[in-house]
Specification:
CATH superfamily of one domain: Mur-like, catalytic domain
Distance between the termini: 65 Å
Shape: flat
Strand content: 15-25%
Length: about 750
């Protein structure tokens, strides 16, 4: 029976013709998926845009499919937390019950799956396009690969709910988690990036790993997990050589355990006898406590420990075991910013369960897991260090442990109890001193201490100095408060003297429109260069650095802008963009100091993005003004009403330009003393003169004839005014603007 007949019968006789008797609904068609990597018509952050054709489901909102809402809320009970457009808890559930379309439902399903997988997601939108039954759905996600997996799993779940089919949620969540672990930033890098974002410092991910640029151009810093571009390669090399590090620390009076490098198990035993028992055996350049065995007395145990340590490093060290508790102190920029202490891992017998069974219960602790997000690792009975501990206690994994008997599994590697507030100033002093001796700006200090709250001498020593320390133990301690270590590193890289939206930023101009925008970009770049800033320009005529062309192909796109912003030479940047680039890629930068919109043309080329009328261009080009910093300015063409109307969206100052001295918009702007005490600024033509106007005050910059390029070539008047207004917004002096125009060698 045709769908429309079924629908009619359902409406007339809902009891006798339930939808569950129908054949399955056809799948929703995914027509297009586009990852927008920067600010777009949707939001400031990256989103995945999906075009959906609902097909027959266009006629069946959520309240017309029996059992759909119950199945969704059973699988995803936290949908109750989604406020949706209602603005309160349960808002989305209200929309479900009242009837909403499947594109909107899919949006919320995906957002909830991301939340369950550990990637908080809040933003999403779904809008119908001009073609009936086709929607554009977007959701925010910082990593494209993760977004696509979330879309895949959300789509499967929704279709199962629609057709009343079974769905296993756990594999779906696991698939998204796997994508996050494989492709997204690790927890150490992520917390630094999050802290930078909190301070409005922009970031650019430079590879598929954890190499991230914080800031733009010459103002940038780079991090790789907990290492920065201020971390010396020499210092890192020293830290990896544990024996050499000890010698340096000893020379400077820092207490360290006595020890010696050994080449064979036999030599390890000889050195242990010389040093005195108990001893520790460890690799010379290992990390994360791999290959470390503590408190050894017997020859067999020491030789076995040598075999564990040798594969982990280039040499093996035997050193005096110091009684106490392991601690990890994090030193950033010469300050201790966090500290944790460890605990041994043991199980207690009940007279019935085997050791293997007891450990299985221990591994069910939600704090333990195989991924980086867990502060504690699973206990692996097959690990060499664990086997050695069991051999020393004469037990095997299959041994039944008597009631009340304790079996030690791990002596180290469990430093996840926060003790930052207990650190004695003397302990902090030696930790920071050791970091300085090695030369590390960020260091993880492994220390053995009986009491971290007491002076160090006589009760402790520094075991290791680690470059690129893991931060998870400080972010997710098993006990105690998390520490803002990401912010400490961000503040180290960008001192608070640079606080505000300017931290990590260079003067950046964004230009959108179609009318002579390449010329405007290049002239503004030239004026910035003359003002003393090495300036890069990305435009449709190529890439320019210090007015020298470095690339001839079109760079008025995301890729071109991205290359410019990663260039450490660029002290200022001018970036041309197009409406097509905004719709298909998003902007390559999060904010700009000056945003310029010249016109609203070009809708004829945007049909593939459902832009069919000039009136729709406002939504596209407002993106350029939406990203203007509050201390910046929007430069707008007052001769085009649609462009001038964007002024209300600008967070910063607005500077108009016009070829008409009597422009009503400009006159009202100049008279507005509420926005600018002296009145608004504008660049206009009066007679043959170019005027810089601030309220009622006017300054003649020069005549149009005088403001010509070398050889007397006169540029387009509107384009010239746009460039002048932009340079003025950048605080370039009128005299320099006038002189710069006359010396600008322009060849399109």
């Amino acid at each position: 029976m045709p769908t429309h007949i079924w629908q009619s019968l359902q409406t007339l006789f809902p009891i006798y013709y339930p939808l569950t008797n129908m054949a399955k609904f056809n799948d929703i068609q995914l027509l297009r998926t586009t990852y927008l990597r920067g600010p777009s018509v949707w939001t400031y952050r990256p989103v995945l845009e999906v075009w959906l054709d609902l097909g027959e489901l266009e006629d069946f909102p959520s309240n017309k499919i029996p059992g759909l809402n119950e199945r969704l809320t059973t699988w995803l009970p936290d949908l109750i937390e989604h406020t949706c457009g209602v603005g309160e808890r349960g808002g989305f559930i209200q929309r479900l019950e009242g009837g909403t379309w499947m594109g909107h439902v899919l949006e919320h399903v995906i957002i909830e799956l991301l939340n369950l997988a550990g990637m908080p997601a809040e933003f999403g939108q779904t809008r119908e396009i001009s073609k009936p039954g086709v929607y554009r759905m977007v959701f925010r996600c910082p990593e494209e690969a993760v977004a696509r997996v979330a879309l895949e799993q959300g789509y499967k779940l929704l279709m199962a709910a629609i057709n009343d089919e079974s769905f296993d949620l756990k594999p779906a969540i696991h698939a998204i988690k796997t994508a996050i672990n494989d492709r997204y930033l690790g927890p150490s890098t992520g917390c630094i990036v999050d802290a930078a974002s909190e301070r409005r410092i922009p970031h650019i991910r430079l590879n598929d790993g954890n190499l991230v640029q914080l800031g733009y151009g010459a103002a940038q810093r780079r991090i790789w997990t907990a290492e920065s571009d201020q971390t010396s390669a020499i210092a890192e090399g020293i830290a990896q050589d544990k024996d050499f590090t000890k010698r340096l620390l000893t020379a400077c009076g820092v207490p360290v355990p006595e020890g010696q490098i050994v080449a064979t198990p036999e030599e390890a035993w000889e050195v242990a006898q010389d040093i005195g028992f108990p001893v520790t055996v460890k690799p010379s350049d290992g990390n994360h406590a791999r290959g470390v065995t503590l408190e050894l007395y017997k020859e067999a145990d020491i030789k076995a420990a040598f075999a564990l340590a040798e594969p982990e490093g280039s040499d093996v060290i035997v050193e005096k075991f110091i009684d106490g508790t392991e601690h990890r102190l994090l030193v950033v920029g010469g300050k201790v910013v966090a500290a944790t202490k460890g605990e041994t891992v043991s199980v207690h017998g009940n007279g019935k369960a085997t050791l293997r069974e007891l450990v299985a219960v221990l591994n069910e602790d939600p704090r333990r897991g195989p991924e980086q997000e867990y502060p504690l690792d699973w206990i692996n009975l097959d690990a060499g260090a664990v086997k050695l501990e069991l051999n020393r206690q004469h037990v095997t994994p299959d041994s039944v442990i008597p009631q009340g008997e304790s079996i030690l599994l791990q002596r180290n590697g469990n430093m996840a109890i926060d003790c930052t507030d207990d650190v004695h100033p003397d302990v902090a002093y030696y930790a920071t001193l050791a970091a300085k001796i090695v030369g590390l700006d960020i260091a993880g200090m492994d220390m053995i201490l009986k009491d971290v709250s007491k002076p160090m001498k006589g009760q402790g020593a520094i075991l290791e100095v680690n470059a690129g320390p893991g931060l998870l133990m400080h972010l997710k301690p098993t006990s105690g408060a998390p520490r803002p270590v990401g912010m400490a590193i961000a503040d180290h890289l960008f001192p608070r003297t640079e606080e505000g939206t300017g931290a990590g930023r260079i003067p950046l101009v964004g230009i959108a429109g179609t009318q002579n925008n390449a010329f405007i970009a290049r002239l503004v770049g030239w004026l910035l260069q003359l003002s003393g800033k090495l300036t890069g320009v990305a435009c449709s005529e190529g890439m320019f650095l210090a007015n020298r062309q470095t690339q001839k192909t079109n760079t008025a796109n995301w890729a071109g802008a991205h290359r410019l912003l990663t260039n450490r030479l660029a002290e200022a940047a001018v970036i041309q963009t197009t409406s097509l680039s905004i719709l298909a890629e998003g902007l390559a930068y999060d904010r700009c100091l000056v945003g310029v919109v010249t016109d609203m043309q070009g809708f004829e080329e945007l049909g593939d993005h459902d832009v069919h009328e000039q009136s729709q261009m406002r939504r596209v080009l407002r993106t350029q003004i939406d990203v203007v910093l509050s201390e910046g300015a929007g430069v707008l063409n007052a001769d085009i009403e649609q462009v001038a109307d964007l002024a209300e969206l600008c967070d910063g100052e607005v500077i108009f330009y016009t070829t008409d001295a009597n422009n009503a918009v400009v006159a009202a702007h100049r008279a507005n003393t509420e926005v600018q005490h002296e009145g608004g600024r504008a660049v206009l033509v009066k007679g043959n003169n170019v005027i810089l106007a601030t309220g009622a005050q006017e300054r003649v910059l020069g005549t149009l004839d005088a403001l010509s390029l070398p050889g007397g070539k006169r540029p387009d008047t509107s384009a010239l005014l746009a460039a002048i207004a932009t340079a003025w917004a950048m605080d370039i002096t009128p005299d320099l603007i006038g002189a710069g125009i006359k010396t600008f060698e322009y060849n399109a």
